[in-house]
Amino acid sequence: MPEAKIRVALLWHMHQPYYKDLVANQYRLPWTRLHAMKDYYGMVAMLEEFPRIHMTFNLVPSLLAQMEEYAEGKAQEAMQDLAYRPAESLAHDEKVYLLRYFFQANPEHLIGRYPRYEELYDLAQASGENLERAVPFFRKEDYTDLQVLSQLAWLDEIYLDRDAELQALVNQGAGFDETDQQVIQKKQQQLLKETFKAYRAAASRGQIEISTSPYYHPILPLICDSNIAAEAHPGVRLPRRRYQHPEDARLQLERAIELHRRMFGVKPSGLWPSEGSLSEEVLQMCAALGFRWTATDQRVLGNSLGISFFHDPAGSMVNAERLYTPYEYQAASGSIHLIFRDQELSDRIGFVYSQTESRAGALDLIQRIKQSALPVTRQGKNALVSIILDGENAWEYYDRNGRPFLRALYGMLAEDADIECVTVTEALERHESEKLHRLAPGSWINANFDVWIGAHEDNVAWDYLADARDFFAEHEKSATVEQRTLALEELQVAEGSDWNWWYGPEHSSANDADFDALYRSHLANVYRGLGHHPPDALAQPIARTRQRVISVPPECEIKPNIDGRVSNYFEWLGAGLYSPVRTSGTMHGQKIMMQEIYYGRDQENFYLRIDFQEIAHLASGQYEMRVSVRNEPEKVMVIGFKRESIGADVQCIIQIESQGKRSEENRCKAAINRVLEVKIPLSMWKLDPGGQIEFQVTVWEKDFPLESFPLEGWLAAPAPI
Fold first, then answer.
1. Rg (Cα) of the chain, in Å, rounded?
2. Do 316 and 292 touch, CB atoms closer than 8 A?
3. CB-based contacts of 560: which residues, under 8 Å, 6+ apart?
4. Do residues 439 and 280 make contact, with C-beta atoms less than 8 angstroms apart?
5. What sign results for the dihedral spanned by CA atoms 250, 251, 254, 260?
6. Residues 6+ apart with CB under 8 A from 532
7. What angle (nearest 5°) sits at the alpha carbon of residue 475, between those of residues 470 and 476?
């Protein structure tokens, strides 16, 4: 009788959010490019050293689409452009931007590896949060070194070792010039092209299986029906709007299959559902589309079977025979197989072994695999241990990007006669699947969907998505093919899981405001793509603001002279004031228009004064101001600007927008010179006698909301006493 075998199904999940603004044709953040430089090539290239080691890589379609654009030189991205620009051409705000973003790397393992990079990091840190103060202390050569080292630090270890030009830059260490910048730029594009070749080669020799995910990485159960969150977590607070679009979920899967077939020449057999999120409705859909297998977490299996999985004091898995086996679910549309990851073993790679010596960590993992599976193998049965985790974000916490650890692990696994490393499809061929009659909905995080739904910010994001989805359904038939295609693409991007990952209390990063702005931009582009104005609400951050503001309510009645000038100190004395404290942490390229606003009223009129960062922009005719009142949101006052000739005064054009139509409004008065001053009769709105006005002010550029005050909620102007 042959000895029992432990088969290890390693699955590395490769994913980055979709950072491209399709209307602007700009990548707003650099993380796809940087992780493509640092992680993806080496993860598969090192397998050439270990031919007995087989595994599965899950490559998310939207990640592949972004990488393809970078590899072909088509991607437009501000950080990429600034990295390769001559330092002497950098403007002041671009230097601040470099200091803000080019140190966003692990201080110990990425920055600290290069002494000159660490020196520059310390110099920037000495200025605290106000990086404006650091600019004068950086010389031209400092900026050039920062530009080169910030990219060199993200280059793949194996690619670095194999490239003489890059090794020369590593050895040089400092004193770089424009030629060195050009070398990095050229190597980046070459590396991305080599990455695609490496995965295709490993798949063709049978060493890896490549699986896919829904195209833009949505949480499929929530796209099918957001109310399923309450089944996974009874009592969770649901959004105001129910999102129920299984047709969108199916389209995300169909597009994933299409891209996978184009890039790798075959239809994918397996699907890693975004964040391990599954439901029975999703299984039905996957089976109907011909997927052979999918996967999720042990806690989802535990909820489905009504049992628990945990390690006993000796390290053996309790109920191991129920976890370490594949399952088959019979749907009406066909059958589909499932594997369930061992959470602790997976998380030890993600969060623990970065703190240990490489060989010690690898040896510990192998011993734990054997001990965990012991209740199965001592019965003479084979065990399938599934280890599934993120294949990119953990490595910056490891020495040399985790390559010494992985080499030690793969070497030990290859030499161990008791263990066989297999792809998921190979595992299904060598193990008989148990029948699974019920699947509890859930994800690989706590077996529920709480990360993406339930918190206030999450639910607002879902409500806005539902509004945009309904708007698309109402207007798609009257749109051109080009308009419909763009709007649908933006909707699918907005359905992705990554936006709600950063909303709510669970996660935060230095780029929270950037993610928020990009999500709202995608939603706004749905409306713009169909030829309509987006709602003003999309100019306001969804994320609860962490920005400090000065906000003072009105103290008394005011009656300013509306001439666009602050005629004297007293005319706005007693007015309300709203003034955000600006920092340099906003997204590069995001326009900051308003500096502060003053507001108040008398018995007959509401008054508003807006101080701008740069008032000259308004003369271009591209901008307009919109004043919305909560008491009557369907009626919006719109102030446009025009200049008859160069040097002439800027004129204000006042209109009222109601139900999508605009008409001139002669009762209001507005003037612009040093500031914008506005007078609006209270009779314009349906106000309760003696009631307060709650309002928002939004700057629009053409059809897009740029900025809104207040940053969240409404400002209130009570009736004067």
1. 29
2. no
3. 567, 571, 572, 575, 607, 609, 677
4. yes
5. negative
6. 471, 475, 660, 703
7. 100
Q: If we measure between CA atoms, which residue out of 351, 349, 341, 324 comes closest to residue 409? A: 349
Whether 607 contacts 676, CB under 8 Å: no
Whether the CB-CB separation of 315 and 400 falls below 8 Å is answered with no
Q: Residue 255 pLDDT > 80, yes or no?
A: yes
The residues spanned by each domain of the chain are 457-539, 549-717
Cα–Cα distance, 59 to 56 (Å, whole number): 10
Q: When comparing pLDDT for 687 and 558, which is higher?
A: 558
Ranking 1-15, 240-254, 381-395 by mean pLDDT, the lowest is 1-15
Distance CA 97, CA 88 (A): 15
Which of 481, 13, 56, 62 is CA-nearest to residue 259? Answer: 62
What DSSP string describes 495-538? TBSHHHHHSSSS---TTHHHHHHHHHHHHHHHHHHTTSPPPGGG
Predicted local confidence at residue 708, as pLDDT: 84
Residue given tokens 């193998």 in the structure block:
377
What Å distances lie between residue 683 and 606, 625, 632, CA to CA? 10, 20, 12
- Of 477, 497, 29, 42, the C-alpha closest to 275 is 497
Parallel/antiparallel/unpaired status of strands 270-271 and 293-297:
parallel
Pair of tokens at residue 318:
């309790």
Mean pLDDT score across all residues of the chain: 92
Q: What is the CATH class of 549-717? A: mainly beta
Burial class from Cβ neighbours inside 10 Å (0-12, 13-18, 19+) for residue 247 reads exposed
Alpha-carbon gap, residue 507 to 258, rounded angstroms: 33
Q: Output the 3-class SS for 241-276.
A: CCCCCHHHHHHHHHHHHHHHHHHHCCCCCEECCHHH
CA distance 485 to 480: 9
State the CB neighbour count (10 A cutoff) for residue 288: 15
The domain made up of 457-539 has a fold known as immunoglobulin/albumin-binding domain-like (1.20.1430)
pLDDT at 582 over 70: no
AA identity, residue 542:
I
Question: Are the beta carbons of 41 and 302 closer than 8 angstroms?
Answer: no
3-state SS, one letter per residue, for 189-230? HHHHHHHHHHHHHHHHCCCEEEEECCCCCECHHHHHCHHHHH
CA dihedral 673, 676, 677, 680 (to 10 degrees): 130
For 609, phi then psi, to 5°, come to: -130, 130
Global pTM value: 0.83
Quote the pLDDT of residue 662. Answer: 87
